[in-house]
Amino acid sequence: MEQRFVSTNAQPQKDAFHSKWQAPSNIALVKYWGKTPPQLPKNASLSLTLSGAHTQMEVNFIPMGSPTKKVSFSILFQGKEKPSFRPKLEAFFDRIIAYQSFLLHYNIVIRSHNTFPHSSGIASSASSMAALAACLVDLESQLSPMAEKLRLEKTSFLARLGSGSACRSLQGPAMVWGIHPSVVDSSDLIAVKLENIHPIFTTYHDTILLVDKVQKQVSSTTGHKLMHNHPYAAQRFSHANSQLASLLPVLKNGNLDAFVPIVEKEALDLHAMMMTSDPYFILMQPNTLYIINAVWQFRAETKIPLCFTLDAGANVHLLYPSDVADSVKLFIASDLLQFCQDRQCVHDVVGAGIKKY
Ligand code: PMV
């Protein structure tokens, strides 16, 4: 139990409260894959915060006469009731109630919208859990004043309990989650912002190529579990931490020749873990590999530092600096969209994190 995150002084009020926050998605450069309860990472991870791909969340907290035993809530996604979202939210509220017991005095009406295309294969758990946590902490700070630092830390703490990677979506341009000897104040409980990032990364582009828009066959929850007793787990966790150590100076000096191989190796390491777990599985698709090969060829021919990373799915994230954005977008349109479902992609850039809207 993390005592400093328990809302001991927050007393429920008689008035309703309305909160609106938006939170972006993030893309991990050093991946989190493997955890122990309650959502504690087995290695430190590092991500760039996005901006265009985000969730807008509106929450109404309606006071009730007497407290309930479990948090009472309803969820509307893109304007429609979403019963399939309830189990994950119920588990989330069960996990956080020890830290925000005043929630038992409210009926919580959640309205959520994503800016990225629905059923695009882009995971929305990071942006939605970060936005929800921001609304919950907004209410808490109304009930009992909180210093800005504690507000941010508690939001990250709660977001993590909803979806691990969500704790990295609060600030930008780059965040680290998980204890790491080279990152001051790093923690397994919350993500921290990396300071003094080279300006090239503050406007970095991420174009998400939608290779496969269907729900992935293996959820990240299952994938994380398969890292228990994985033959390469110990090496993977320590290697991820050393990749992160190598990336830190690069994020400060902007050396893209060093950036590209670290990022691509991390993506392939993540998928190598999937291919060598028991049971084994492959989330990449033939078109994922066509794209990767086309990116390598383009880079060799043009010397433009375009690189890729992958999440737990077949879609490819293309990362590149803004000064080459025009050439890369032409290349995407002429050579890569043919490998995407319905020729769809999402152009995004690095951003600054959550905000009230
Ligand atoms: O936050 P989760 O439980 O959905 O796991 C995210 C895992 C990856 O997206 C594959 C890597 C990461 O660090 O974001």
What would you note in describing this structure?
The chain contains nine helices and 14 strands. Strands 1, 4, 5, 6, 7, 8, 9 and 14 form an eight-stranded mixed sheet that branches. A four-stranded antiparallel sheet has the order 11-12-10-13. Strands 2-3 form a two-stranded antiparallel ribbon. The protein is globular, with a radius of gyration of 20 Å. The longest helix is centred in the last third of the chain and has 21 residues, at 233-253. The model has no long low-confidence stretch (mean pLDDT 95). It is of the alpha+beta class. (3R)-3-hydroxy-3-methyl-5-(phosphonooxy)pentanoic acid binds next to loops.
Summed over residues and divided by their number, the pLDDT gives a mean of 95
> Architecture of the largest domain, according to CATH?
2-Layer Sandwich
The number of distinct structural domains comes to 2
Cα-based radius of gyration, to the nearest Å = 20 Å
Question: What does this entry show, briefly?
Answer:
By secondary structure, the chain is an alpha+beta fold.
Features:
2 domains, four-stranded antiparallel sheet, eight-stranded mixed sheet, Alpha-Beta Plaits, globular, Ribosomal Protein S5, domain 2, binds (3R)-3-hydroxy-3-methyl-5-(phosphonooxy)pentanoic acid, about 35% helix, 9 helices, about 350 residues
